[in-house]
Amino acid sequence: MAASFEQIAWQMYAQLNSEARKAVDSWRSLGNDLTTSLLNSGALGGRRHSAGDPAELHARIANWSAEHELQLAAEHEAAHAIVARALGLGPITVEIRDDMSGVTRHTRTSPVGTAIAAVAAEVWITEFRYFAFPAGDHHGCNADRRKLVMNTTGDMEIFDVHRRAREILAEHREEVLAAAHRLAQDRTLTLD
After folding, report:
1. pLDDT digit string (tens) for 12-47?
2. Is residue 180 within 8 Å of 71, Cβ to Cβ?
């Protein structure tokens, strides 16, 4: 399910620094909607846009949405991959397809390791990158949740798996971001 223009506008707003938010808020206080305020304030960079240019507005939002979805997919898959590598489940291959779906494969498996790697993406997006992705990644994490449930035995083990994923991600934060950057550029990644 694609995000609405309003949801995308709020995600864009959430990524602005405080000075840019103030500029947008000034335009909103004049009675403008959020999208018009984002464009007129200049907070998105470049020149200010007229409210009467719907084609340009649609093109900017569509472009931002595609970049945002690619970044979300790249960080999602990078979190799986870095945690799998930290757990010794490599070698690992990662791919992002044209439809922005991704897949992370690791050659070694164990039920607990598979569960930790599966939950890593959701932990990364919801806990480490909430401000970049305030809407989360519910659609992308459904298969991951199934893997988590299939490879754990109950609520306490699920809690432990989340805790372990959080620890690994905190320790390897910069590696996740670097892997996501490479993945967004190349659409494939291999880790030993």
Report:
1. 888 888 888 888 888 787 777 788 788 777 777 654
2. yes
pLDDT tens, residue by residue, 36-89: 788 777 777 654 545 455 666 666 666 667 787 898 999 999 999 999 999 999
**SS3 of residue 55 by DSSP:** helix
CA distance 32 to 27: 6
Give Cβ neighbours of residue 141 (< 8 Å, ≥ 6 apart). Answer: 76, 121, 122, 125
Compute the distance between CA of residue 118 and CA of residue 83 in angstroms, rounded to an integer. 9
Q: How many residues in the chain?
A: 192
Both tokens assigned to 160: 């432990």
Segment (H or E) for 116: helix 111-123
- Residue 188 pairs with which residues in a beta bridge? 95
**Locus of tokens 């900017």:** 60
Main-chain dihedrals φ then ψ at residue 106, nearest 5 degrees: -130, 145
